[in-house]
């Protein structure tokens, strides 16, 4: 019997997935529940496991290419004798891509991006996001099919090569670099396998050749889709100047305990949202949805392009120190593409902070499914006049609230910012309680 491995739906916005790497090569034995392929969704890299035992017969979608959700990306043969049958089936599919009338269309194969819908596909199961542990820790070398072919043709011992792919996977480029006499770095890399025991540092972005076009990553496509959706929402913006002297003093006190400024701001926003549930609400087909939780999403730029918003769930009810620890873990997993879907798509209110780049003020675009986003600029010393007419120097920051005018009106936004400023300026110590 021939089984199909389908491209799963890993998020609500995912329409296609990109193959990061194939863990198995054609002809390899596949155990039930064993990872076969790593798929890049819009936010994370996920393991796709086989639901049946057999042999990987043929790969339809190779590494680096994308396939629509619900489409077959490989065939698994139940026996070795059926591998050729799987290859013929794949050849027939490529020659006649239109599905037969007796077959279900892809839309029925994956009906919704939930765990239940993915599990309803009998040939594939999706596990947790990729772990950052390297391949060497499992004692098994992971090699791409093309790398195997090149190594075999040139008599290369793959154990002498340290892979640069996901989880230490050896790619074709690694083998070619090892073979190239012009590359003096390859033997050095091969002579230091100890480096494989630790996660590789983030690679510097490759220089972009001027006059050329660079294809979009899956994450960038997801961001573009979200931004296009935001164009249909009537938004308005309200700005406010907040004095941060008291907040800065508190930060100096708690910084040594691992508290970040991001956690302080998220906590302040969450506490203020308790008084303004409308600012935490959003519009849906049922009307105005008042959220039962205050989940603060914070925008984070990714090194390889795109934007992701890890979510501090129940930020109003979580103590400041736990919130800071949670935030550090979220950022680490976000940059390693290990976030679970509910860790990036459950936000009810969003913060975007560019103050660390010296930005004074900016406008943020409202994310889909939320009612408001707060853009935070940098805090800097300013000469200000006091109520009694004196002059003093105070640190101030500019914040801009972008809101959905179908849900939130100007007075609501102004009152929210007024209360946020009052908390930060006069009683930030309450955030530590």
UniProtKB/TrEMBL annotation:
Compositionally skewed regions (Low complexity) per UniProt: 127-138
Every Lipoyl-binding domain range: 2-77
Domain annotation Peripheral subunit-binding (PSBD): ranges: 142-179
Stored Pfam families: 2-oxoacid_dh (PF00198), Biotin_lipoyl (PF00364), E3_binding (PF02817)
Cofactor(s) named in the record: (R)-lipoate
Enzyme's top EC category: transferase
Gene3D superfamilies linked to this entry: 2.40.50.100, Chloramphenicol acetyltransferase-like domain (3.30.559.10), E3-binding domain (4.10.320.10)
Enzyme Commission no: 2.3.1.-
CDD domains attached to this UniProt entry: lipoyl_domain
SUPFAM superfamilies cross-referenced by the UniProt entry: CoA-dependent acyltransferases, Peripheral subunit-binding domain of 2-oxo acid dehydrogenase complex, Single hybrid motif
Superkingdom of this protein's organism: Bacteria
Keywords: Acyltransferase, Lipoyl, Transferase
Region (Disordered): 86-114, 127-147
PROSITE patterns cross-referenced by the UniProt entry: BIOTINYL_LIPOYL, LIPOYL, PSBD
InterPro entries recorded: 2-oxoA_DH_lipoyl-BS, 2-oxoacid_DH_actylTfrase, Biotin_lipoyl, CAT-like_dom_sf, E2/Pdx1, E3-bd_dom_sf, PSBD, Single_hybrid_motif
Family per record: Belongs to the 2-oxoacid dehydrogenase family.
Protein name: Dihydrolipoamide acetyltransferase component of pyruvate dehydrogenase complex
Annotated source species: Pseudanabaena yagii GIHE-NHR1
